[in-house]
Model the fold of this input.
Amino acid sequence: MFDLATRDIKYISGIGPQKADILNKELKIYSVLDFIYYFPYKYVDRSRIYYVHEIDGNMPFIQLKGKILGFETLGEGRQRRLVGHFSDGTGVVDLVWFQGIKYVTSRYKVNEEYIVFGKPTLFGGRINVAHPDLDKPDELKLTSKGLQPYYITTDKMKRSYLSSPAMAKMMANVLQQITEPLQETLPEWMIKEYSLMSLNEAIRNIHFPSDSESLRRAQYRLKFEELFYIQLGILRYAKDRQQRYRGFAFEKVGDIFNTFYTQNLPFALTNAQKRVLKEIRQDVGCGRQMNRLLQGDVGSGKTLVALMSMLIALDNGYQACLMAPTEILANQHYETIKQLLTGMNIRVELLTGSITKKKREPILTGLVTGDVHILIGTHAVIEETVQFSSLGLVVIDEQHRFGVAQRARLWHKNVYPPHVLVMTATPIPRTLAMTLYGDLEVSIIDELPPGRKPIATVHQFDNRRDSLYQSVKKQLAEGRQVYIVFPLIKESEKIDLKNLEEGYYHICEEFPDYSVCKVHGKMKPAEKDEQMQLFVTGQAQIMVATTVIEVGVNVPNASVMIIENAERFGLSQLHQLRGRVGRGADQSYCILVTSYKLAEDTRKRLEIMVRTNDGFEIAEADLKLRGPGDLEGTQQSGVAFDLKIADIARDGQLLQYVRGIAQAVVDGDPTASLPQNDILWQRLRALRKSNVNWASIS
Ligand code: ADP
Ligand code: MG
Done:
């Protein structure tokens, strides 16, 4: 038999160079192996044929058998459509086409028998089936039990006659040509112990299930394997690194920490902050390199935890560095930290893109000599020219804005890798964190500092703007400040900017007694900073902005957050925005403004926002509603693999289960040398070479 991984699909009879070219370009399918790992996204039971009198508008895809009585073209312009009146003698349904009218009328004949396949809907009191599949009964080949695979195809594929049925046909053909059983990719003992279907059976059944039970088992086997290898890769990588890299041991908590704790700390730590600090202390003290994710809702006091961790580094003779995603945030951290360290003999410096060369030089020198203890900055801190004398700890704020590659560069700042603490206010469900962040340990601050009033969130339709402005005026009259946020999305940038400008003028008119500032992502940094500063200092009472204010900005006097077109934001994003208010002692409000007409899942999203302030609950809900691909931060943080069959949102339990198995394998075979696991390590090496960039996951 040929080698599936190296056999080019263009040599397969029934595919050929032309189709192969399209498969290459559209689906990145090159080898036979790629092809048979292109799984159907759904199956439809086509064993049953319904009668017209049985169906209603709520059924899924169904089949009917009968004849077209006649065609008719209805409507004008975009409403123009072809209707074929179809009957099986028990009733009539309308088959509807909005496109390809010529093609349909030339291809399908009146009074000939067809099997119609499609989704019935009720429209104008009649059952409609839009763009149905029509087949002659004798040409339609159904699998034995009627479960038909459906493959995702692109427009380009469809235009080249590579539709889903064509893919199914090619798949059947290819699988038939693979005469020997597929080589197993899991060890014998695992197949036995976890009662898995063999790979050979699983691949064949995933395309052409012999029945629904076999399909279920095939799916389970393939998901199991997919998730298992991801976890095995992550845990193997973690183990190797653990064995390879010693970390700096911060053995003591010394004068600097203690002075700060007893003299400078303006309030008592929350229990959650204490617990997390203890976790960090243990981690940095044990001689291994720390890689820890610190999750905590906006306002939960992560900065303080970061600072105190940095002080531990200083106590042990090391320098520390804090990276923020934007200049504004870096500035704010710098100001906050300098103030918190007042009177202590610690040199803190700020390094951002706009620090002039003249100012930069002494900072760079100070870092090399060790005179600078704490460096705060943006991406600028990881430039080549920045050298430390002994960098012991790096804190990264809002990690998802940093590219994976940038994080990796930190490693080259030192002989040993510094400890890394990543802070994020985007709570990530545990299952996702396990996959995204792999071997990162996770600490969670699940408690807000005392005295905060929960933010009151309301959903308001945009036709009630008058009453909305009334309540805003009341807040302004009491001396509070207000954010008004507009969406700004790349795809609709021009329109969005126009909306923002209009909104800005409208607000200026509506609130003539107050000063309004404006910030959006298209502004020059200097201009942006200037506007931002107006709001921070209280010279402006209203800020009209796009999501640039999303991250970190702290204005305790701001008590109202109005989010326009709230339906266009993701849940996590809404939650982040909401976190901009509620930072002072006053009651704060978040008002989600939408039009009256909303899709069902949008309504659900907004309901969740109104119901809860708990970021983790919101993140879980977001994951369920939208899937991980769309989850805020997932794209940027670089999920280094794409899943072919498993779904992190739905297969969370299986993920946890296989992670346990993978952990046991790694622990039981720490040097990757047990013969019974040969297949595992070989396969892992192969996977690492192909699609998965493991190094980028940590
Ligand atoms: P995060 O970065 O997690 O969003 P911050 O670190 O900016 O939150 O903290 C939000 C605010 O809460 C800051 O003004 C900070 O000084 C304050 N804060 C932090 N910890 C405490 C605490 N234990 N008690 C009271 N206030 C606190
Ligand atoms: Mg913060």
About this structure: The first helix runs from residue 16 to 27.
